[in-house]
Sequence to fold (438 residues):
Amino acid sequence: MTLRPKPTMEELTALCKRRGFVFQSSELYGGVNGAWDYGPLGVELKRNIREAWWRDIVVLRDDVVGLDTAILMAPAVWRASGHLDNFHDQMVDCKTCKKRWRADQLTTDRCPSCGNATLTEPRAFNMMFKTAIGAMEDASSEAYLRPETAQGIFVDFKLAYQTARKKPPFGIAQIGKAFRNEITPGNFIFRSREFEQMELEFFVPPEPPEEAMRWYDYWVGARYDWWMRLGMQPERLRKTPYSGADLAHYSKATTDLEYDFPFGWGELEGIAHRGTFDLTQHVAASGKDLAYFDEESKEKYLPAVIEPSLGVDRALLAFMLDAYERETDRTVLHLHPSLAPYKVAVFPLVRNKPDIVDLARRVELGLRPHIRTTFDDSGNVGKRYYRQDEIGTPFCVTIDYDSLSGNDATVRDRDSKEQVRVSLDMLEVHLRTALGKI
Ligand code: ATP
Fold:
């Protein structure tokens, strides 16, 4: 398959707004910087991305269980994890235009906005959102919105493995909101202040060290394959391993999966071998014993952790950019069928023939409980194809005059535009097979 040219961010954001994938949060009141709403199609795509991950990581595996922990956690968690002391970005302010920048993103000593050399010295800025629990706003009520979902997993580690009766190697997965007061949110939904993460903490015996490294290599490969299976173009996804000084101090190995965005290569997902750092921190801070006791070998140990972590919003952006193609007469989203908001659209050829409309409605209602289906009778068939192609619907089914006598319909393929005639008795089986094949 030939590599599709990259769309511009403007083309994609226009499509997202026009078709109801993503809106700016509180647009009615002028918007909020770094927060986004997902419209009727965006919410479907986002659910499908979560579902594809959950199915691969939890449902199909016997060695991973799920968890859903609270966004508000004891502040001591963030002290122990290092977020209170270390979760900083260095920021600089421009004394002329008052804009604020991340120091590591500046290439000169001049303000990128007004061009003046009036930037302050870098100052540390903690990215956690602070809030208060209860009616009294004093030091004892202080709390934070979680900046990652992972800590909920570490804190509940013992409860989860005991109740699920799991022993290392095994994992705990979580999907949920995370909040970071990013200094410079931007590139649409790539960097937001409120976003969603999908994180797996995979616990393995720390000895022998080669065994933990094997699991790390395994997860780098497994995660790369997931993106490939969902149709991502291989030329646009790369593995970037980090070593030496580029590694976080606790990390034994890290690989980023990076996507070739219109604004350059950017992190989509990080896979990190975190050693026993996180559990060790929580044991020290809580005074509780979190060690795993292996009944068989009578050994007691703190497991090491391999962590694949990605953002749902960033994944949505990458999947949409990757699927986007501007052809001479149409725009198509070549989304993988399992991600497409609708799998099938049913049309009556004309709106003014009750028999045709009735049959189309019956076909739609027959499919709806089994395959995500939509109905469209506005404009002419050409316009409807155009609309469905642009939102990535893999198949359109048109009920026409011949359907009334022949009990069949035209099924049109999004990618090839090929049309075939299919008996209505076989329609669901035909669509299921065709959707499974792509
Ligand atoms: P970056 O270097 O881009 O700030 P990070 O290395 O801090 O990201 P992690 O803490 O490793 O990111 O978070 C894991 C994943 O969560 C990232 O790979 C990304 O997909 C997602 N993510 C992190 N920060 C944001 C954000 N501000 N907006 C949207 N997604 C994010």
